[in-house]
Amino acid sequence: MALRTLFLFEDRLPAGSPSVYLPRGDRAVFVRFGSANFVFDTFSQFLWDSSGMTSTDELTIVADEQDVVLWRWELATGQESAEESYLLRSAPGVATELKLSMTCDLDDRYTWLMRLDTVTFPPGGIALTHLHQGPGIRIVRNGEITIETEGTASRYRAGQAWSEKGVLPVYAPTTEDGPTTFVRCFLLPKQNKGASSIRIVNPNDRGRPNTQSYRILSERIMIGTGGSRPAN
What digits encode the pLDDT tens for the residues 2-19? Predict the structure, then answer.
């Protein structure tokens, strides 16, 4: 087993701010507001509101002509577990806030995948009691969701984040006041690439349709997890 730390940061880049830099590593970025150009070792990609990507390369972020808010997940190695290691470089005027961190216990016999996706519920939608194949951190984009697990229930609204271990059952009702969407970065064995990782716990629920819909924004095999570094 390998213990690693997953961080979620919120980065705020003023309009037209100087380019900022991040080192090579396993990360996912979701554009909460605004737009920016993301420049990698061999290509660049323009992302706008509600789009996202995963990467293992060094990264330069070039803000557009409006303020930008990013949600950024970073997976730390044992030597890089301090949150200060993941602040934006060369970034005067940029504000970074740690939203949440969690320890991930990864079985190093597997090659692991990092997935960034969104999950959207209609008003009053419910995620039936379920498991996933790996851990991750979620954050509410809009609406409200209650997470019931390990005998506790916690409510989350827009901009609030929580972690799930994956192996512990979760039941998740949402508000009836309107639709709810959360953004999720989680870690999965590579066999889950392109496929749902959800497992419904109660036999009587397995024939019931999901109320929620999923959109995979990006996924990528991670570096240093049971194999050589993949090409872009």
Answer: 889 999 999 999 998 999
Put the strands of the sheet holding 112-121 in their side by side order.
161-164, 136-142, 180-189, 112-121, 213-221
Instruction: For residue 229, name the pLDDT band (cuts at 50, 70, 90).
Output: very low
pLDDT in tens, 97-125: 999 999 998 998 999 999 999 999 999 99
189 in Cβ contact with 134 (< 8 Å): yes
Whether 205 and 173 share a structural domain: yes
Report angle CA 168, 133, 124 to the nearest 5 degrees: 65
- Same domain, residue pair 191 and 139: yes
Q: Which residues pair with 148 in a beta bridge?
A: 153, 171
Q: How many CB atoms lie within 10 A of CB 167?
A: 11
Give the Cα separation of 36 and 18 in Å (integer): 12
Q: Is 172 exposed, middle or buried (0-12, 13-18, 19+ CB in 10 A)?
A: buried
Q: Which residue has the tokens 């190695």?
A: 77
The sheet with strand 44-48 has its strands ordered as 20-22, 59-63, 35-39, 44-48
d(CA 37, CA 120): 26
Q: Residue 30: CB partners within 8 Å, gap ≥ 6?
A: 50, 51, 52, 70, 71, 72, 116, 183, 217
Q: What CATH number is associated with residue 33?
A: 2.60.120.10
Tell which residue, 98, 64, 93, has the closest CA to residue 81. 98
pLDDT of residue 232: 38
